[in-house]
Hints:
Blueprint: H1 4-18, H2 24-60, H3 64-79, H4 86-98, H5 105-116
Amino acid sequence: MSNPLEKHEYLLKYMKESVGTKEPIEFFDRMTDVFKLLFERIDTLQKTVDRIKVHSALAISWEPRVASDLLAQQVHILRQDADTYANEIVAFKKAFAEDKVTQSYQDFIQFWVDTLGYHPFLD
Length: 123
């Protein structure tokens, strides 16, 4: 069951079939699995909504403050593997401090591509 949809359909079917035929603990055990799937889905959706909020704000009009926040967030992400991304962290911190690459969309994108090798909004 690699497809999460298949797993939740299986769980719901199992729960329906267990009512009145199996021990209540089996039903509630599967219910915790359902809650886990729901919470994972909610977390994924929340991350997507947050990303869409940022991208939509930038699509409407360029906001240097939002771009600065993206630089700061990327530094936090890069710090998770600081040994590999030491140079990139320094570049992002400098860009954040100088606040130059955040002033225009083109400068921001070019900095990001030059530093990390990919477009920041293509994930």
